[in-house]
Specification:
Radius of gyration: 53 Å
CATH superfamily of the largest domain: RNA polymerase II/Efflux pump adaptor protein, barrel-sandwich hybrid domain
Number of strands: 32
CATH architecture of the largest domain: Beta Barrel
Number of domains: 4
């Protein structure tokens, strides 16, 4: 052993000394890095005393909030819907399980007999608690704005809602549970039966949206009826003379003016009447001349007064004969001279349309034959029958609406007549409405519906009549929601054909599918929506 190590070291070579120095520098650097990377512990061993680090405790509070000695989250955690909604786990009974700390609630919407009801169970960790461990209630908010409070009653090891949950099962729900010491609040939603349609699809298919609200509803009685000729402006044209038809310038359906020639008839009887008139006129001329001559002679004291009186009597008789012949021609509707003694011109009695024609060239007609029917179609009658029990509600002078059955046409008029007698067979009374018909759209024989307004009232909630559809034999409205529509059952009231009163199931201000709602219904059928309970 070398007794002098320093001297021994001095004997080392220069290369060995440099290597030793380099190794020492590297060792010091590594030691510093190790010291900087190791975590510093709080004073007093805080981390060991509580069993977790400060960072872990902060992460737990971020999700659950500050806790008291019971371990239950308070403050803003109870109103933190985002924390509870949509994060429920599956429960042992197949329902949604909402947890907070050790306490949890499982809720399930299931068929209870023929009615869907909520079922619920309480848990402490994984242990089932008795039904009396907490009080439970659920508040449902429908898309239409209606709210429903659901109460629960014990049933076996859980609870069941005391009232059914009406369909459709589309709602936002708030679940409130109250134990002996703590309240708990959870939220969830249900979107069963939703018809998915984007805004672009709604626009492309022509579906129009409307908003429910107040509107006047006119309650009306509806009667089936028929358009008929206005008999006050309808004429059955007869020749009034016997003869043979020479010409018929008028045609069926033709518009004619008053006095226009409809047909020309050659009549021997008319020829005799005109001959009689001409004979009477000639006799009148002779009697007038004789009277004037006898009067002059009497004035000159040549003839006696008796001759003057006889001449005047003969003139008066001739005047009567002429007037009689003229009256006969006037009764026939013929003039004194019509281009020939036998020529008879049949003329239109007023402006109108030829609706019937029973005459042809060369035909022999009698004086009472109905050869033409002319009607002024600028006005028509809408006739309908009224039952005995409805007679007090239909009065002359009331304004009514008349709608065509075969096409989309509507007009208003007034009741002009209500029959005083009830038919023995039909047990109804006849009534009629006079309608203006300037475009000749109301054709006789057309079936119509006559709406008689019996009451007018303002209702708080109404929708367009086009919006109502029937799903599962129930009237529904398709409400507009984010991303599509949902069927909302409603209870309807009065209707005037355009608006329908909504008695229950919908609030004012709700957006819904109006015109084109049948398209939404067809899309619902394609989707084959099924129940999830």
């Amino acid at each position: 052993m070398n007794p002098n190590p320093i001297k021994a070291a001095g004997k080392l070579g220069r290369k060995q000394l440099l290597a030793i120095i380099l190794i020492l520098v590297v060792a010091v650097g590594l030691g510093a890095m190790i010291l900087r990377s190791s975590p510093s512990k709080p004073a007093g061993g805080h981390g060991d005393e509580h069993g977790h680090s400060e960072a872990a405790e902060h992460a737990d509070e971020e999700h659950h909030g500050k806790k008291d000695g019971s371990g239950h989250a308070h403050g803003e955690e109870h109103v933190d819907n985002e924390h509870h909604e949509g994060k429920a786990a599956k429960g042992p009974h197949g329902g949604q399980r909402f947890s907070e700390g050790d306490f949890s609630v499982e809720i399930l919407l299931a068929e209870e007999g023929s009615e869907p009801r909520f079922k619920a169970w309480f848990y402490d960790k994984d242990k089932v608690l008795p039904a009396t461990a907490a009080k439970l209630s659920v508040t449902l908010t429908r898309p239409g704005g209606d709210k429903q409070e659901i109460a629960f009653a014990p049933a076996g090891d859980g609870l069941v809602s005391t009232q059914p949950v009406a369909e459709p099962h589309v709602f936002e729900a708030t679940l409130a549970a109250q134990t002996a010491t703590e309240p708990y609040l959870f939220t969830f939603s249900q979107q069963e039966g939703k018809v998915a349609m984007s805004d672009a699809q709604v626009k492309a298919t022509g579906i129009t949206l409307d908003t429910s609200g107040a509107a006047p509803i006119r309650t009306a009685l509806q009667f089936p009826g028929e358009i008929r000729f206005n008999e006050d402006r309808t004429a059955h044209v007869v020749p009034r003379v016997t003869g043979v038809v020479e010409s018929v310038p008028a045609n069926l359906g033709q518009q004619v003016r008053k006095g226009q020639v409809l047909a020309v008839i050659s009549s021997a009887a008319l020829s005799e009447q005109r001959s009689e008139l001409q004979t009477a006129q000639r006799r009148l001329q002779l009697a007038t001349t004789t009277y004037e001559r006898e009067k002059k002679l009497w004035e000159e004291k040549i003839s006696p007064e008796q001759d003057v009186l006889q001449a005047r009597q003969s003139m008066r008789e001739s005047e009567i004969a002429v007037a009689n012949a003229q009256q006969k021609l006037a009764a026939l509707g013929a003039s004194a001279s019509g281009g020939g003694l036998a020529r008879y011109e049949l003329r239109a009695p007023f402006d109108g349309t030829i609706v019937e024609k029973h005459i042809s060239l060369g035909e022999s007609v009698k004086e009472d034959a109905n050869v033409f029917t002319i009607s002024d179609l600028s006005t028509v009658w809408a006739e309908f029958s009224i039952g005995a029990q409805q007679l007090p509600q239909v009065r002359v002078g009331e304004t009514v609406a008349v709608r065509a059955v075969a096409f989309d046409a509507k007009a208003s008029g007034t009741i002009a007549y209500v029959g005083s007698l009830i038919g023995e067979q039909t047990r109804t009374a006849r009534a009629r409405v006079t309608l203006a018909n300037p475009q000749l759209a109301w054709r006789p024989g057309l079936f119509v519906n006559v709406d008689v307004v019996t009451e007018e009232a303002a209702v708080p909630v109404s929708v367009s009549a086009d919006a109502l559809q029937t799903v599962d034999d129930k009237p529904v409205i398709f409400l507009k929601v984010e991303g599509g529509f949902i069927p909302q059952p409603v209870q309807t009231g009065r209707s005037d054909g355009k608006r329908v009163e909504i008695v229950a199931g919908l609030q004012a201000g709700a957006r819904y599918a109006a015109a084109g709602s049948f398209i939404v219904k067809s899309e619902q059928g394609k989707g084959s929506a099924t129940h999830t309970h």
